[in-house]
Specification:
heterodimer; A: mainly alpha; MetI-like fold; two-stranded antiparallel sheet; 13 helices; B: mainly alpha; two-stranded antiparallel ribbon; 2 strands; 72% helix
């Protein structure tokens, strides 16, 4: 950037004003207001009184909240691992030329574009213990039928399965973008030196696309932490509380129990976690591009 | 055949099988959705399941339209100063609600977001970019508590306006983020030449940068529209009976009415159909936007 660029740089602020007003009203103001509400004893229809950090202290001793954190971490660990591993494998496949590649790729990304409620409803019908197509398929190949979202032990793996089905394509697209920018030379050198396909993947491809995998990893982590629609429709937090994640508990506290102060404290904790991870994202993005 | 030819053949078959394995879960779920929606209730609840409908029927789709208010049309009074002046046509229904909210939120986001993306890209406002990034990754539900209280206080709950405004939480960050990327990718020379020739910054934006950024605007529009259309949780909290968007309406079919699979699958298919068609038609733009933008909204 020369002298000219620096002179003009300051004159671009009017372009930011309209969006700035909107972002302040619907994004920044809610953040500040949430922080304020989290220090209040605030029930819808009840009195509003200041209670300092009492909501935060309650979080630390609330078993229901602490279990929701554990569940969220359990869900997130699996809902990151499977899509990332499968997404990398899929990206390697889609990087090669083959007939109907465009069509295959379009079909592959449909799950992540489709309306989550619609596909969650279809999965719900497929999971039906007696009449569902999945238990039919399982038993017809000799496997035992599953209770899917109707049993405390299988509900989270079931939700992870749907989440994996839905979001593996996003990991694939990010990694595919990385693969497309790779140089050809190292591969030719490796081939001449007699490296196997696996060796050149392990020692050339993987290190070169690592920044992209990092981006996918962070994005997937954030998305899995805040996953809600699928849980809402398929299991409704149940059976009992066995699929109640932080985000779902937040919904309940705010819009079923109308405990606005406590819900706001959950939002603040949630926000801090997401913020820390997105700082990771911002630094890893800069390395990737 | 020679050994290396056999090995290559097996390699090809293996590769074909792995592509098939990758695509089939997506294909099967959507085909099953289609199959459920085209079968009568007897076929849908039979065990073992009927995969290919024996009696094709469109009755499920007819039921969905007859029993639900997708689009309603009626004459209503226009009241002002305590008296009725004239009758005017008023539209309603779930499809109408979804269209108003998603088109409105996308349109406003373009109006505000495209200039902002230009401004941020040109002035290299890293802090503004970081703010947008954080806005995109924060859970949508966290905005809903304060906004819900605010709309209640303003007496707006039960109209489409709060829904449209909260959908800006999704669409504005998407548009700004995609546009930053596109404007950063444009060459500076043309604009600088115009500025040297005496054009104002606004003219440089309007007549040079904006036409060049048209592909970016297309990408931003598609993504903002899709993520707004798909949004569920804002509608669950903010919509009244009359202002439900399509995803909320379909969810309520499941919960509050007799569950029959055919109409439910038909409704689910209809809700997601615009998005599926858009994806099939614009897959190149969507892929470009998602790999550049990287994060979904909501």
């Amino acid at each position: 950037m020369g002298l000219r660029g620096r002179n003009y740089a300051r004159q671009y602020w009017p372009f930011l004003v309209p969006a700035g007003v909107v972002v302040f009203a619907v994004i920044v103001f809610p953040w500040i207001f949430t922080l304020y509400m989290s220090t209040m004893e605030w029930h819808v229809g009840g009195n509003i009184t200041f209670n300092g950090l009492a909501n935060y202290k309650r979080l630390l001793t609330d078993d229901r909240f602490l279990w929701s954190v554990v569940r969220t971490l359990y869900f997130t660990a699996m809902a990151v691992f499977f899509p990332v591993v499968l997404g990398i494998a899929a990206a390697v496949c889609f990087h090669k030329e083959f007939p109907f590649r465009g069509l295959a790729r379009t079909i592959f990304i449909l799950p992540m574009m489709a309306t989550p409620v619609a596909i969650a409803l279809v999965w719900t019908m497929m999971f039906h213990p007696q009449l569902g197509v999945l238990n039919y398929l399982l038993t017809s190949v000799g496997l035992p039928a599953s209770q899917w979202q109707y049993s405390p032990g299988t509900v989270i793996p079931t939700l992870v399965m749907v989440e994996t089905w839905q979001w593996t394509p996003l990991v694939m697209l990010i990694v595919l973008g990385g693969l497309a920018s790779l140089p050809i030379d190292p591969y030719e050198a490796a081939r001449i030196d007699g490296a196997s396909p696996w060796e050149s993947f392990r020692h050339i491809t993987l290190p070169l696309v690592w920044p992209h995998i990092m981006v996918a990893l962070v994005i997937r982590t954030i998305d899995a932490l805040k996953s809600l629609d699928i849980i809402f429709v398929i299991s409704n937090g149940g059976p009992g509380t066995s699929s109640e994640t932080m985000n779902y508990l937040l919904y309940l506290e705010a819009f079923s129990f109308y405990d606005i102060g406590y819900a706001s404290a959950i939002v603040v904790v949630f926000f801090v976690i997401i913020l820390l991870i997105s700082m990771l994202l911002f630094t890893s993005r800069r390395q990737a591009y | 055949m020679k050994p290396h030819q056999i090995r290559r053949l097996f390699g090809r078959i293996g590769f074909g099988l792995s592509v098939f394995a990758l695509v089939s879960p997506a294909l099967l779920v959507f085909l099953w959705m289609l199959s459920l929606s085209l079968k009568n209730e007897l076929d849908n609840t039979s065990f073992p399941p009927v995969f290919i409908p024996t009696h094709f029927t469109f009755q499920n789709f007819i039921d969905v339209f007859e029993k639900n208010d997708f689009v309603t049309f009626e004459w209503s009074d226009f009241d002002l100063f305590g008296r009725t002046w004239f009758q005017m046509p008023s539209l309603g229904g779930y499809l109408y609600n979804s269209v108003v909210v998603s088109f409105g939120a996308t349109g406003l986001a373009l109006l505000f977001g495209v200039p902002a993306g230009f401004g941020i890209a040109k002035s290299k406002a890293q802090k503004a970019a970081a703010l947008i990034m954080i806005a995109r990754v924060t859970p949508g539900l966290s905005y809903l508590v304060p906004l819900f209280l605010m709309f209640q206080w303003l007496g707006m709950v039960g109209t489409l306006t709060p829904l449209l405004i909260t959908h800006l939480v999704i669409t504005v960050p998407i548009v700004v983020w995609v546009m930053i990327g596109f404007f950063e990718g444009l060459p500076n020379e043309l604009e600088e030449a115009a500025l040297v020739d005496g054009a104002t910054i606004w003219q440089a934006f309007r007549y040079i940068a904006l036409p060049l950024a048209r592909p970016g605007i297309v990408v931003a529009t598609i993504l903002a529209f899709i993520f707004s259309w798909n949004n569920f949780i804002f509608g669950v909290v903010l919509a009244g009976r009359e202002t439900r968007t399509l995803p909320v309406a379909v969810y309520n079919v499941l919960t509050f009415e007799e569950v029959s699979w055919g109409p439910l699958a038909a409704a689910a298919l209809l809700v997601t159909l615009p998005v599926l068609v858009l994806t099939l038609l614009m897959q190149k733009e969507i892929v470009a936007g998602l790999t550049a933008g990287g994060v979904k909204g909501g």
